[in-house]
Amino acid sequence: LEDELIEDDRALAAYKRLLELRPDDPTATEAIERGEDQRRAWKELTERKLDDTKSVEDASIRSSMLSWVAETEYRYGRAEVALDELVGLLEEAVRLDPRNRRACLLLERFYRQQERWEDACRILEILATESSVREERFAAWLRLARIVVRKLGNEGRGVAAYERALDLSPGYAEAMNFLSDCFSRGEQWDHLVALYEDQLRSGSFKSGQDLGIWLQIAMVQWRMRERPDLAEPYFDKVRRAEPAHPGMLGFYRAWCEEKEDTGKLVTILTDAQRALPDGEQRGQLAAEIARLAENQEDVHKAIEQYKALMRQDPGNLDARSALKRLYRQTSAWTSLVDVLRHELDAVGAEDVPARLSVLREIAAVYRDSIKSDSALVTVLGQILALDDRDVDAVRELCRVYESLQRWRDLLVHQQKLAELSEDREEKLTLLRAAGKRWMEQFQNVQNATDVYERIFAVDPTDEEARQRLRELYQRRRAWPQLFTLLEKEAELTDGEPKVQLLTEMAKLAAERLDRSADAIALFKRILEIEPQAPGVMDALEKQAERDKDYETVAQVLERRVEMAEDENGRIAVLQKLGGVYAERLSDPRRAAGAWRRVLDIRPDHARAMRVLRDAYLAAEDFDAIAELYGQNEDWEGLAEVL
Q1: Which of 141, 198, 403, 539 is the most buried (most CB within 10 A)?
Q2: CB contact burial 333-363 (16+ within 10 A = b; e otherwise)
Q3: Is 627 among the domain residues?
Q4: Which whole number is the average pLDDT over 9-33?
Q5: Contacts 24+ apart (CB under 8 A), 240-244
Q6: Do residues 595 and 516 both lie within one domain?
Q7: In this predicted structure, which of 167-176, 500-509, 512-521, 613-622 has the lowest mean pLDDT?
Q8: What domain count does the chain have?
């Protein structure tokens, strides 16, 4: 306050406070006493000093004396002394001795107060040029630069002043910022580069600060001057100091692409990757390195990078897709399966379509590339566990089981495929093969029967299935199933084959199934189709008698009457028919009709006469008796009866 700012009043207050804290402080006491003495005698002292200057010949001494006078008058009599008078004294002092620091500082202060900026600049330039103290010269140039830029708006003089300040204190932030901003705005790139290079050569930067300068130079050379060749040495320095610097990596991407030097770019990116911790940026570099290596046909390096990326980010779809592509390219099938397995593990159990897609991809690798049927079986089983109606998986399992000679598994899946297939011919072919194997290889009647029944359901005209089923039903004594089979066959045939089938069905119904009514009905159907079918009428009559179906017996006998070749045959049948009507059906009318037909053939047939006579007598039908004897004119016999 006292020496530099020349604020005596504030300095006096400070000394007094010091004495309050330390009452006997010698420095404060002396300063207060000295100040009071000078304040009382300043006019006398300054006048005497000014007179003494006239007799002094040494310029520097005179300059010092004049500056002392001006300072004392300002310090104690500023209210009484004109400022211009003080300025005149100080200007004379500076003229006599430009190295008079105190005079220069006071002049600068006065000119600032009067806003005489040009005069302030002139004094600062003298101080900056003449001072023997480096720090004072630097401070003078710095203050000069600020005035010309901020007050006078002269950027050119500011550049010169800041450059001189940097010469004395390299790397000073204010000067660097101003100059770099000025050169950038003016696109003075050469000057800007020279500025940075000069600062580097000065060695004034602390450890680590040179990185920013290298980067600035490099960016200017690359972006502004479009001289990447001159920028590269500086980017190389940046790379060695900070291998993962984004700006540096951006330069080398463009530089190496232009030079078609992918190998160098891979090396630089690899160094950057090593310098980074695990995270998104490291993963992005790994992916980029992998793509570059792949383009260089360095497949193994690309694979390693993608694997590293997968370890860091297991859900990275691009990396997984790239690995699958590269493994296929290099025929690394086992590794491909591992990747697909990891992909499968990452898919939730509820996402069935996605799991099926991955499993089918694995199956394709085992089938087409690794050619491992045993491994393929497991994968296809997993597919069917998720979708038991996957036709392609079942068909593939059939092929695999046949190749592995796992016959029982083959049969199960052939039948499954037949169930799923919409191709009728494929369905039949599969079932025929399964049925034949069940029969011939395993002698499994039950399973073979099931298969041939399915064939027959699909194609009732399949002769092999019909024959096989007949054999199997007979072997198993499965009479109801055989009857049903024959019934379905009969529906599809006509003529003699139909008669044969119906005959066989009738025999089954009568002899095996205890279905006499069905047997009788079937025999009747046969006779409707072929009335002369051999043995059918006898079988029908016998079955009807066994079943006590005398109505049917009567119908058969009626047919026999019509079919009889001579009189004796017809008479014999009619006699039996009359007995059935009378004795079994208790139908005297139809019984009498049968016996009358006997008499129509042979009028003198004694038994027919006797039976009819007895019947008419029992009925007291005398007219009928008269007619009976009258047709033979046996009046004596009539007389005896009556």
Answers
A1: 141
A2: bebbbebbeebbeebeeeeeeebbebbbbbb
A3: yes
A4: 67
A5: 241/211, 241/214, 242/211, 242/275, 243/268, 243/271, 243/272, 243/274, 243/275, 244/272, 244/273, 244/275, 244/276, 244/281, 244/285
A6: no
A7: 613-622
A8: 2
